[in-house]
Design a protein that fits this description.
- By secondary structure, this protein is an alpha+beta fold.
- The protein has a domain of about 110 residues.
- Helix content is about 30%, strand content about 20%.
- The longest helix is centred in the first third of the chain and has 24 residues.
- It is elongated.
- The N and C termini lie far apart (about 80 Å).
């Protein structure tokens, strides 16, 4: 069947085309997309959105921690200086410690560093507990994860009442 008249979709003289999205909404969508693109570019060029600020209090205690895999899924945590075993995490134990260390190891691997150098755990007078990788200078503020998780790392510090101290 042939139609001779104008198509219903064609514009007649003097009429604006029918828009399905309001101009203000379109501008808002474009601004949102620009924001997302800008945030992604910032993250890719900066490699870090938020950095751990330097502690303001004096250093109370520090320990170099080495982590090594053992058979059966165990992880042996030892003093990086003396080599003595501090704690052994059996398979299924210490998921918070495993996760934090795994994230720091992943950053090392992405940087092309495959050293067995230990990580530095520090407690400062301003009650900040920080685990830092001396090779990449990446640091994780452990108090941000709550007192239970922080206590897991406090127990690894070299003084006897470390586990009883609270870092909020």
């Amino acid at each position: 069947m042939e139609t001779t008249g104008p198509s219903p979709l064609a514009n007649s003289v003097g009429h604006r085309p029918v828009r399905r999205v309001d101009d203000r909404l379109m501008v808002l969508i474009m601004v949102g997309l620009l924001f997302v693109v800008g945030a992604v570019l910032l993250a890719r060029t900066n490699d870090q959105i938020a950095a751990v600020p330097a502690p303001s209090g004096e250093l109370l205690v520090s320990r170099v921690l080495s982590f090594s895999d053992a058979p059966g899924g165990e992880i042996i945590i030892s003093d990086g200086d003396s080599g003595s075993t501090i704690r052994t995490l059996k398979a299924g134990e210490g998921s918070f410690i495993r996760g934090v260390v795994r994230s720091l190891v992943r950053i090392r691997q992405q940087s092309g560093l495959f050293s067995r150098t230990g990580f530095i755990l520090t407690l400062h007078a301003d009650r900040r507990l920080i685990l830092m990788d001396p090779l990449t200078t990446e640091a994780i503020e452990l108090a941000a994860f709550g007192p239970t998780n922080t206590g897991e790392f406090l127990a690894l510090l070299p003084y006897p009442d470390a586990a009883s101290r609270r870092v909020d």
